[in-house]
C-alpha cells in the first residue's frame, strides 16, 4: 500500500517533517535530496525521532542518544534494535511512502 504525501509535508533538503496518515506517526527526512521515512517512535522507549539530531542519514533520539541509520532503520553498529523504515517513491512528482497493509490502523 502506498500513502501519498501532501506536497506541503515533503521536506526540503536538510529538513524533516512529521506525517500522520491513518493515525500513524511517520518522520520523513530529506538528506541531500534523498527521502527516508521511519516510524517517529524510538523502539527503546517511544520518544519522537523526528526532532532528533540529524547527521547525514543518522538520526539521534533526543531521549537517550540512540542513533539509527535512516536507510536501514538499524541502531548504529548493531542489528539488535531497529526502527521501522519504509521505502519512499516519487512518481510524476508525487511522493509516496510504501507501507505494508498491516501497519495501518483500521
Automatic annotation (TrEMBL):
GO molecular function: 2 iron, 2 sulfur cluster binding; dioxygenase activity; metal ion binding
Reported cofactor(s): [2Fe-2S] cluster
The entry's keywords: 2Fe-2S, Aromatic hydrocarbons catabolism, Dioxygenase, Iron, Iron-sulfur, Metal-binding, Oxidoreductase
Ranges where the Rieske domain occurs: 2-97
InterPro entries in the cross-refs: Rieske_2Fe-2S, Rieske_2Fe-2S_sf
Gene3D superfamilies tied to this protein: Rieske [2Fe-2S] iron-sulphur domain (2.102.10.10)
Domain of life: Bacteria
PANTHER family noted in UniProt: FERREDOXIN-RELATED, RIESKE DOMAIN-CONTAINING PROTEIN
Family statement: Belongs to the bacterial ring-hydroxylating dioxygenase ferredoxin component family.
Protein name as annotated: Ferredoxin subunit of nitrite reductase or a ring-hydroxylating dioxygenase
Organism this protein belongs to: Pseudomonas deceptionensis
Amino acid at each position: 500500500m502506498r500513502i501519498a504525501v501532501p506536497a506541503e509535508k515533503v521536506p526540503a533538503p536538510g529538513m524533516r517533517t512529521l506525517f500522520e496518515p491513518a493515525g500513524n506517526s511517520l518522520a520523513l527526512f530529506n538528506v541531500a535530496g534523498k527521502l527516508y521515512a521511519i516510524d517517529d517512535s524510538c523502539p527503546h522507549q517511544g520518544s519522537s525521532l523526528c526532532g532528533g539530531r540529524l547527521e547525514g542519514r543518522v538520526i539521534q533520539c533526543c531521549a537517550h542518544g540512540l542513533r539509527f541509520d535512516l536507510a536501514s532503520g538499524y541502531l548504529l553498529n548493531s542489528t539488535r534494535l531497529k526502527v521501522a523504515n519504509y521505502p519512499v517513491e516519487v512518481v510524476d512528482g508525487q511522493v509516496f511512502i510504501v507501507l505494508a497493509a498491516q501497519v495501518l490502523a483500521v
